[in-house]
Amino acid sequence: MMLLEPLARLGRSGLAALAGIGRANLLLAAIVAGLPELLLKPRLLIAQLYSIGVLSVLIIAVSGFFVGMVLGLQGYYVLSQFGAAESLGIMVAASLVRELGPVVTALLVAGRAGSALTAEIGLMKATEQLSALEMMAVDPVRRILTPRFFGGVLAMPLLAAMFSALGVLGGWFVGVGLLGVDDGAFWGQTQAKVDFREDVLNGVIKSIVFGVVVTWIALFQGYDATPTSAGVSRATTRSVVHAALAVLALDFVLTALMFGD
Amino acid sequence: MGTTRTTEILVGAFIAAGCLALFFLAMRVSNLSAAANGDGYALMARFDNIGSLKVRSPVSMAGVRLGRVEAITFDQDSYQAVVTLRIDAGYDRIPADTFANIYTAGLLGEQYVALDPGGSPDYLGDGDQIEHTQSALVLERMIGQFLFNKAAEGSE
Amino acid sequence: MGNGLPAAANPGSALGNADATTAGTVSDDAAAPPLVRIRGLRFARAGKVIFDGMDLDIPRGAVTAIMGPSGTGKTTLLKLIAGQLAPQAGSIVVDDEDVHCLSRRRLYALRTRMGMLFQSGALLGDLSVFDNVAYPLREHARLPAALLRRLVLLKLEAVGLRGAAYLMPAQLSGGMARRVALARAVALDPMMVMYDEPFTGQDPISMGVLVSLVRHLNDAGGLSSIIVSHDVPETLSIADYVYVIAEGRIICRGTSAQVSTDPGPRVRQFLDGQPDGPVRFHYPAPPLADDLLGNGGRR
Fold it and tell me: What residue ranges do the domains of chain A occupy?
């Protein structure tokens, strides 16, 4: 019996994880089912676009610009050794649009907005606000979670586009402005090599997927949190960690599907 | 009420900025601006060897981009590459005896089609073929030739 | 499964006292069916049985108190009545509708006729006091803005907080938050209001305010009220009928006067706050000597 205990514990945690995944999927279905109601009350969505999107713009813009500048600097030193400094634009733009834009934006949003969502929902649960809504005959999933979910899903690609655009400008600033790469070559080479459908649209699709995953995880962790202060704090940590891991793992899968032919 | 209004304005600005960023990525960073004017007209050119020329490689004259490579096919009868060049609609006065070369941008850069204008009063139109072409320079072949010449000089 | 627990098995009445009083409370309202009728309720959570075959009636138009020590599932009972939790067996009928057989839509419609005052107030933190009270009205009634405003201010006036209409919940004291929540709970003029520990943690003044408010709202608004509480004197002072539950069973029922003179030892211990009695002071444990001498046998 003693020997079987670790095995039983493994089984228990496995079953608990499965049950969690099941609950998360049921929650997602309930959230999406609230979409028609949300369309009738766009004000709720606007409020969430504000707190998830607008309030994240500053950190996204600053990080994007700096990431682009670093790419420009590093890329220049490598490329100039091969006499191909003109290709700097391609390197900066392609890596931003395909990978860094969607991924870094998703990680930043998970840290800034996702954790806030988890804490907010968890506290609403702990302070019985969700129960109170139910008692007022208002479905808390549709009223509270659905607008947040679609707010996140809509904000993510917009934020990722800003990140990439500012990143390219950052790379241009360093490459053309400081290091003397030819302006025409920078843009010309970039335009010649970065494909709209292949690179830009795939990046947008990636960031929409990340938007779904990050907000879903954040909302589920909040909604499923143990309604105590320790429970909410654990849920917030889990929200960020799970979202980051999910984004990185999904990025690999999506990249393999999109660019791996 | 004032705060709701501010929120709405900021959200509107946020969406506009996001779309602007996407537009920037589409038009300035990617090739959508070039692909968008898919009108223009097509010219054909046959090359013995196109090197590493790709679809969407630029087509330029005097260093200015006039269009791009639209398609590359292989002619089994002549064993030549048939390259379709899509020239932007604005550039409609390319002389009929224009010369098409495949050059390399920089030592290791990508290859592109460079057009050298001839002196003919007639202009090329949609579907016309450029008669005079020069193949891509293949580095290995050049080095081989160079060594061969050196060897020949040495033996003399 | 439910049929295995006949109502007759309810042990509540077995504890002496109850027969006469039961007849008293229920027969008064025999003409009208009770507002809430609970039969054979069985509910267990995390392996712990909270209710086992409980029967309970809540009459219309009265203040009914459900009292008992902490952890006896009083709040759970309210959530069961509101349909937020589902019992393993038994039925809960509210105003002739079986709460746990209703479709979602019907259940939500029923809830618009129920109000609940949560222990913490549970005001929505990002809305002002005015918007909190207006929330159920905006959700369920299409009213012109001017009428809505008048209604909300009237509700706030009833709880004495019209002046606080534009404060945020975070700026309110605990007692004020509870009064705002009360105004919200009655915003839709429900047929019943459930109070979850309304007097806990209040200073004597706000306790007095809440006690009189509960009574006043019940009588002026023609409501039925259910109070769940362990604050004995306040609750007995306003309740028309009282149930005392312990360990998942009803151990005493009757009017407030009947209950306060009930001789049952468990009831007396609870009402008089004796530290030791049928409910032991000590959590179940092996004899102290065993634990101290290290052969208690745990681990």
Answer: 19-259
